[in-house]
Inverse folding.
C-alpha cells in the first residue's frame, strides 16, 4: 500500500496543469504521519551550506530552515501564550541566511506562517535584512487583503503601506511542500515573490507573472517557479516521501547563470530549541555545522 501511495503521488506531481480551483478543504487535511511529525513538541532544524550571489560574486555562508508548529492568535496574528478559541495551529518557517560581502556581513531572516489544513493557508510574512549600510523590514498580514508595511533606508523605498488583493505568495509555497506537495500550484500563475529578493534587487512589491512546474527526478522532486519579467527562477528540491524534507534550493539569474545562489543541506535535527539557551548548549550548533 505504501508503494502504491508513493506512485500515485509521483503521478499527480508529474502533471503540468495548475491546481484545480475546486480542490476541497478535505484535500488539505494532514495525514496521520504528518500530524505525528509536526505535533511531537519539537522543531525541525536544517542547516545548509550557502553560496550567495551578491554584487556579482559568490559569497560562502550558511542558511537555516526552522519549521515548527505553534498556536497563533488569528486577530493579533502573533504567537499565542496558550491554545484558545481565539487561536489556530500554524506551521511557522524561519528561514535565515548569513554571509559576508568584503568587510561587512549580511543577516537575512524571513518568517512565514500558514494555517494548517486550510485551503487558503497564508497568515503572515515578515522579512528583515541587516547589513552595515542599514536595514530593511517588511511585514505582510493576510486578512481580507494583503496588508503590507515596508521600511527601508534606500531612497524611493523608505516607508510604504501597500494593499494588494489576496493571492499566492512565494513564501507560502515552502509550506505547501511540507504539508500538501500534491496540491502545489502549477502552470501560469500570479505570484508575490519573496520579499528578500524584492528588497535586495530593489523591485516593486507587487504580483508578477510566473510559471510553475514540478519536475520528477529519480530521488527527489523539484518545484520550479520562473518569473520572466524578473529573469529569475527559484528551484526547491525536496524528498519524495513524508515529511518531504527540503534538501536544497537554487535562486537562478536567467540572464547570468554564474549569479546563481545555492543552498545544499548539511544536516537535519529535531529539537526543542527554545529550551537550549544555556552555556554548553552551543554543542547543538556544532552538530549542525553552524560554527
Amino acid at each position: 500500500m505504501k508503494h502504491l501511495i508513493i506512485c500515485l503521488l509521483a503521478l499527480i506531481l508529474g502533471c503540468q496543469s495548475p491546481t484545480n480551483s475546486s480542490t476541497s478543504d478535505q484535500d488539505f487535511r494532514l495525514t496521520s504521519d504528518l500530524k505525528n511529525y509536526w505535533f511531537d513538541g519539537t522543531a525541525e532544524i536544517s542547516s545548509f551550506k550557502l553560496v550567495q550571489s551578491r554584487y556579482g560574486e559568490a559569497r560562502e555562508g550558511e542558511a537555516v530552515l526552522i519549521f515548527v508548529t505553534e498556536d497563533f492568535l488569528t486577530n493579533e496574528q502573533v504567537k499565542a501564550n496558550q491554545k484558545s478559541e481565539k487561536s489556530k495551529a500554524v506551521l511557522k518557517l524561519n528561514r535565515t541566511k548569513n554571509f559576508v560581502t568584503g568587510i561587512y556581513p549580511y543577516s537575512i531572516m524571513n518568517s512565514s506562517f500558514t494555517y494548517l489544513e486550510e485551503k487558503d493557508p497564508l497568515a503572515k510574512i515578515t522579512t528583515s535584512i541587516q547589513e552595515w549600510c542599514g536595514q530593511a523590514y517588511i511585514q505582510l498580514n493576510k486578512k481580507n487583503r494583503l496588508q503590507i508595511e515596508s521600511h527601508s533606508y534606500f531612497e524611493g523605498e523608505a516607508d510604504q503601506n501597500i494593499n494588494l488583493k489576496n493571492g499566492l505568495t512565494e513564501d507560502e509555497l515552502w509550506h505547501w511542500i511540507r504539508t500538501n506537495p500534491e496540491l502545489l500550484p502549477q502552470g501560469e500563475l500570479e505570484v508575490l515573490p519573496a520579499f528578500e529578493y524584492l528588497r535586495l534587487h530593489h523591485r516593486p512589491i507587487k504580483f508578477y507573472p510566473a510559471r510553475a512546474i514540478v519536475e520528477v527526478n529519480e530521488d527527489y522532486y523539484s518545484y520550479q517557479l520562473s518569473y520572466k519579467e524578473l529573469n529569475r527562477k527559484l528551484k526547491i528540491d525536496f524528498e519524495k516521501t513524508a515529511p518531504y524534507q527540503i534538501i536544497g534550493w537554487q535562486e537562478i539569474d536567467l540572464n547570468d547563470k554564474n549569479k546563481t545562489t545555492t543552498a545544499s543541506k548539511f544536516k537535519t535535527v529535531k529539537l526543542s530549541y527554545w529550551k537550549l539557551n544555556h552555556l554548553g548548549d552551543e554543542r547543538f550548533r556544532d552538530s549542525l555545522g553552524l560554527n
Remarks:
- Residues 35 and 123 are 20 Å apart (CA to CA).
- Confidence is low (pLDDT under 50) at residues 1-21.
- Residues 28-282 form one domain.
